[in-house]
Amino acid sequence: MDRFEQAPGQFRNFQKDDFEADWIRVAECRFGQVYQVKLKLWREKFALKSFDTALCGKNLYRKIIEEVSNIAKLKFKYIMCIYGMCSEATALVMEYMSNGSLNNLLVSHTLMWPKKFQMIHETSLGMNFLHSMKPPLLHLNLKTSNILVDDHLHIKISDFGLIHWEEGMNKTLFIEQLTARGNISYIPPETFTQSPNPPGTTFDVYSFGIVMWEILTQQKPHAGCSVTTVLLQVSQGKRPCVELIPDQRPPECEQMISIMKQCWAQDHTERPQFSDFVRQTESLSEFLKVPVPIHSSKNGDAGQKADYPWLISPMKKITLPEMSHSPSVDQYSKEDILSMLSKKDFGSFRHSVRREHVYTHFSGQKRLLHYTVASGDPESVKHVLSLGAEVNCTTARGYTPLIIAVLQRFHDTITVLLDHGADVTQGEEDQWTPLHFAAQNGDDRTVRLLLDKGAVVDAWEKTGWMPFHLACQNGHETVVRLLLSRLSQKAVVEREKAQGRTPLHLASIYGHLNITKLLLTYGADPNATDKFLCTALHLSAEEGHNRIVRQLLQNGATTDTADSRGYTPLHLAALKGHTGICRQLLSNKANPDSRTIQGWTPMHLAALKGHEATLVQLESQGGCVNARGENGWTPLHLACHHSEPDLVAKLLAAKADPNVTEESEGWTPLHVACNSVSFPSVLHLISYGANVNALNYGNATPLHLAAQHGCVPIVKALLMNGADRTLLDSSGSTALNVAQRSEKLEIAELLEKGC
Question: Which CA distances in Å does 272 have to 124, 165, 610?
Fold first, then answer.
């Protein structure tokens, strides 16, 4: 059977040549890369998640494929679709989500309250579906980076069912699996206890509570805290600070906060099931419906709206009260009139509406014209205007009928309103004009209509954005060209007020190549800096936009400009593991040993994050493997600290000094590896001549640290390679004394008898 003639929903094995050659890397995961690819036959975009078996191991990859082949059979609106694998690329083929992860979206944009509520509700629906399986399908890896966002900012849950608790599994190993994925903030407190009970559905409920907090605050939980600190705080019942949820929030938010607190209850038996509260999140989500999901780019000065518009998302139509009776034509109440609009019974509406209805005030200072425009029928709009409706009437939040029509992309209605004198310059409470909304939405037809009627092309909204900034940020090339034709040359370099970013900054950070090229053609300065002294090259290098980096370099971008923290573009690319961008920057004379304010080189940052390929690239192009950063730490110290044995091996092969000591406590890399309980790293260091009897400033040897942590293989390796069991630390203790004091009985027995 041809692989494209298999049964629908069957797990397929795609070939590399099934996809077009242009693979665009859109994200990086711990064990590989995610690419946007296009299937030749179906002409459709997919996400291809490749696994580097050198990092994750072939056995783990095979296990993932086995699990996913079963999971792929599950189909639900709010969970990620998996179509198959591509064995040639050791990759999974999945649904493509154009807006990436919720984790990134929460950082880059300020979401309005209705959109936050919608995302919480949709996540609860997806998790409720997984838990409704028999037996429940546990996620055990629920976090904002595993919640993906589509074109219309609806969510889908990914990476579920890949972590398992197996009968007799070592609890420490299970926790290590979780923390290795950066999940420490999402792990419930009972996981850290000695309880042998396996995780259940309440594990995911706790994680969901943390996700709710992230969505409501758009902050990171336990920011800046070490793993140990988080573990202690969570075990003691401490949770992320509820006070970080903005004060200016709708009353319904209190109910969401109540649900959140129930989800992260200390006692897992007190946590609700998803089936218990999914209807509550639905009712709250339905109550706060809004036409635009994103108000503006997130920045330090731009506050969220204190309230929310009365309208709903363009993807759904307005829900109005049902008619409760059938009155005579002269007895229609305002509720009956709205009901006709709700049912789209426009003939009856136009026949029944009276002048008194037109002047009636509804909730939120809305007028009938607002509702009529939202209904989408231009003939009804004409009729209401003929009855004397004020074309520029506003809601309590300043929304005019024209703004509503622009939000809904009702072009015929927009024309009707403009013909009746709608004011194209009138903004809502935050001074967003119709042109701002049209530019953000990429609606070039509306932009033309508004410009032809005298819209102010360089109008500023409250926090300092022009429509041009919004079009550049959101990648709407046609709108950008339209606005450029009406703007002065100065607008190309005009900064938005919050972060001081130019249009070029905005296009570069979001990866809009054609707009970047266009702006550079119009004279945009590639070396302009924002308030944090970042250039467009900093932002695109950090985000991994290779082609934009190339374009900026070709147009004179400076490689070694430092931002306010002393980071160059090379530092940021190394930190994120964008090896190709590092290669480009180094080929354009970037300094491989430039230092941040804290003294870190790009190689330090690559080692810090475990980016092996990036580190090799830096070393091959002149980076110093023995550079000392803050407290005298070298890249090798960092690789040992983060238990990255492959990275340790690469550094040692590149002549990193295995016996260098850091400054604060005099630790060698071997001390650090023993403290991090990284057995493979210890073996690598010993094989390259690390001194097994090195003393730190407290006279502790690596053996003292290994004994304290109770790792038998490390203790054996040290003893077999000449570790001296008789050496005393500054407290007068041998390694045996340390093991006894730490109740590491197996280690104590080993040290007493010898290896």
Answer: 12, 21, 38
Cis peptide before 327 (omega within 30 of 0): no
pTM (whole model) above 0.85: no
- DSSP for 532-584 reads T---HHHHHHHHT-HHHHHHHHHTT--SS---TTS--HHHHHHHHT-HHHHHH
H or E stretch at 151:
none
Q: For residue 199, what are its two tokens? A: 């995780």
Rg, the chain, Cα only: 30
Cα dihedral sign for 583, 587, 590, 593?
positive
The answer to whether residues 405 and 414 touch, using CB atoms and an 8 Å cutoff, is yes
β-pair type (147-149, 12-13): unpaired
Closest residue by Cα to residue 69 from 82, 56, 54, 52: 82
Return the amino acid letter for 95.
E
What is residue 16's DSSP assignment?
G
Looking only at the bridges linking them, the beta strands covering 82-86 and 91-95 are: antiparallel
Beta bridge partners of 49: 34, 92
Task: Count CB atoms within 10 A of the CB of residue 18.
Answer: 21
In whole angstroms, what is the distance from residue 737 CA to residue 470 CA?
Answer: 65
| Domains by residue range for the chain, with CATH | 12-95 (3.30.200.20), 102-288 (1.10.510.10), 306-429 (1.25.40.20), 634-755 (1.25.40.20)
Distance CA 64, CA 159 (A): 10
Q: Using the CB atoms, write b or e for 471-500: b if 16+ within 10 Å.
A: bbbbbbbebbebbbeebeeebbebbbbbbb
Pairing of strands 82-86, 12-13: parallel
Residue with tokens 């002269």: 330
H or E stretch covering 674: helix 669-675
Integer Cα distance of 501 and 505 in angstroms:
6
CB 615 within 8 A of CB 635: yes
Using an 8 Å Cβ cutoff, are 662 and 633 in contact? yes
Look at the block and give the residue holding tokens 């990914």: 158
Say if residues 627 and 601 touch (Cβ distance below 8 Å).
yes
CA dist., res. 42 & res. 58, Å (int): 30
Along the chain (755 residues), what's the average pLDDT of each consecutive run of 10 residues?
Answer: 39 81 75 80 80 56 63 76 80 84 85 88 92 84 90 83 57 63 80 73 94 94 80 87 86 90 93 88 64 34 31 26 33 76 89 90 87 93 95 92 92 96 94 93 94 94 91 93 87 84 93 95 94 95 95 97 94 94 96 94 91 92 93 92 90 95 93 93 96 95 94 93 94 94 90 72
Buried b / exposed e over 40-52, threshold 16 CB at 10 Å, is: eeeeeebbbbbbb
Pairing verdict, β 147-149 and 82-86: unpaired
Neighbouring residues of 664: CB distance < 8 A, sequence distance ≥ 6: 631, 632
Strand partners, 35: 25, 48
Tokens of 181: 């994925």
Q: What are the tens digits of pLDDT across the range 387-414?
A: 999 999 998 889 999 999 998 899 999 9
Q: CB count, 10 Å around CB of 405?
A: 28
Beta bridge partners of 147: 157
